[in-house]
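Re: beginner question about structure tokens

> Can someone show what the tokenized structure looks like for a real chain? I only ever see the sequence side.

Sure, here's an example I had lying around. Input first:
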Amino acid sequence: MKRKHFDHFNIAGFAYYEGAIAFNDLKIGTKLKLKPEKKNRYDENAVAIYYKNRKLGFVPAANNKPIATILNAGHNIFEVRIQQIFAEAHLNQQMQVVVFVLKQKKEI
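And the corresponding structure tokens:
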């Protein structure tokens, strides 16, 4: 499968979840998972970002609606990877991720 760039952003809330615990395991290119949080009381479009079982934070609110809509419709078409690491930056600015949408194979 090929992929196309969909979005990129810093992980929101990285300082408040398990980002610091997982920081030394994270490298450019590390694959992450997206999980919608339909019952999030602060944002109905909340999408959490995970590395293995560690919650790193969220897709920023300014970017989450299209991703949440697709995931909540049952389509897991995204590949998320760490794009840049800024170790000296403020905690919430340390991890930038890139989101790709995967192209499906054409059926004949």
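Each token stands for a local structural state, so reading them left to right follows the chain. The longest strand covers residues 3-10.
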